[in-house]
Queue: 2 jobs
Job 1
Amino acid sequence: MPNGVNTRLCPFCGQNNRCMINETQPCWCVKADIPNKLIALLPTQLQQKACICLNCVNAYRKNPEGFTVNTNSC
């Protein structure tokens, strides 16, 4: 766990992000279009440390104005 960040958990909702960065196959997020404005909602120390889960990415896309870091809306 680098810098106290659990890389297996989504930094927004705390659920398993299904990250496969350390697996033999590429992670799903390699081909995903993660909005930069969503990434910018995270504190700097969490950015690029753990994958945002697909549920949170989709929740943000559906309602960017209503999505906040602590809503666990996904």
Job 2
Amino acid sequence: MSAFGGSQVHAWTPKPGLEEEHPFGKKVERSYVGHTEGLLYQSMIHGFVPMTIRGVVWYQGENDGRGNDSGEKMTAWIESWRKLWNRDDLPFYYAQIAATTYASGMLNVWEGQAEVMKAVPHTGLAPSNDIYDGLDHGYSPAPDKVDEKDTGWPIAGGSNPHPPNKRLVANRLADIALAKTYGQATEREVFGPVCDSQRLEGNRILVDFLHVGKGLKAGNDQPLNWFEISDGTEENRRLKYVKATARIIDADTVEVSSPEIAEPKFVRFGWHSLARYNLVNSDDLPAISFKTDPQDHHRR
């Protein structure tokens, strides 16, 4: 195991020529080595190559919220290690960072993590955004805080990138590895729902999800929350979104609409760094935040 708190993924990615720039035995004169490209790979991983490994489990990324390219950097990191170990199918399973406003929030990180799982084979994301405020598991029916300013929907009470009960995240990572790498048969879904696509139908948007298990549901038996839609209108150079009504109309489909929007174009879900939402699959794993508009990340 290698660990370095607060590091960024590009610090674990090999950088050609780094050994000449920072040779072993010479102190690195940098403010924070965990943010310096290639340094943690060179000092903490390089010696393992080509030791036989079965796969990689990753729990890091809160500092990657400082940029808008976490997905691209994760992909480059995965590809570099697969090349080093000469294994195109080397598994990479990683934990979703907890709800936090640290480092400008995790919206970019969550979106990047989901994109990597969809685009890069043999990867998987273990969700964590249903673990709040010391709860043992699951959605809280009586949230401590409400985001009155923006939506009136519940938000997580804290802003710590380290959630309580990390053993639950570890269990989810283990479930993914056992099912996807070791072939352990399971009837349970091991991933949380991820947006697959949207379909525009008049005044509504239909959102299709992957990894629904036996079907989507509301984790607290209340109406679905944290869905918003936009018709493309901009306000202060950003797309204007309004609160939407959402309902499950099929095992893997959610219908989203609002009387304020006659011709919606885009939908987003859980688009807040502290969003506490209730859309889960049949195995109670929470959905991953997403947006379908092409604009840069809107941070909260």
